[in-house]
Prior knowledge:
Number of strands: 14
Oligomer: single chain
Order of helices and strands: EEHEEEEEHEHEEHEEHEHEH
Amino acid sequence: xxxxxxxxxxxxxxxxxxxxxxxxxxxxxxxxxxxxxxxxxxxxxxxxxxxxxxxxxxxxxxxxxxxxxxxxxxxxxxxxxxxxxxxxxxxxxxxxxxxxxxxxxxxxxxxxxxxxxxxxxxxxxxxxxxxxxxxxxxxxxxxxxxxxxxxxxxxxxxxxxxxxxxxxxxxxxxxxxxxxxxxxxxxxxxxxxxxxxxxxxxxxxxxxxxxxxxxxxxxxxxxxxxxxxxxxxxxxxxxx
Length: 240
């Protein structure tokens, strides 16, 4: 059945699809009264729903049995330097499908794309919509937050706790497998992945000072998006 996002505020009382979700359901999917769909709230709840009434701007629903699913554990936050072109769209999509629970886009010294001001909010909003569409398609009920784009130097000093790993080409990096297997019981993991030209030496030093462990992803030099997919997949597999 088709899946639609029903905001958390709409689960108590009248369940009504509005905005882009209602428009997509009515005008693209052409749903009809009496049909059944699945809705989810982005926080782990989902439910089958019967369509009671359809208009261009609203779709009234009768919710069935609500299922609650916990978020994947441990929580994986991908901190990703924004690559050029539309590659970040792909990274967000696949990160959601692979089980990332948060995404932090970053601007680094070697980032080709420069994003500032209103463009930062616009880009993050676009990537949040990509994340939502990925959730709808892959059956993920927890919607990852795509944070607003931040400058690496501003973010690194407040990069949170838990296990922190930087995908690194620097000498002395340990295999990612070894870091994960020695991590013990962790609740949150931050995976930091650089741009096409990797992090600068100064950025690498700042990451180490902030508690990131340098991890090797193997002997083959990976593209930025491939490194992100590899790191998330290996982490999710190790803790599955």
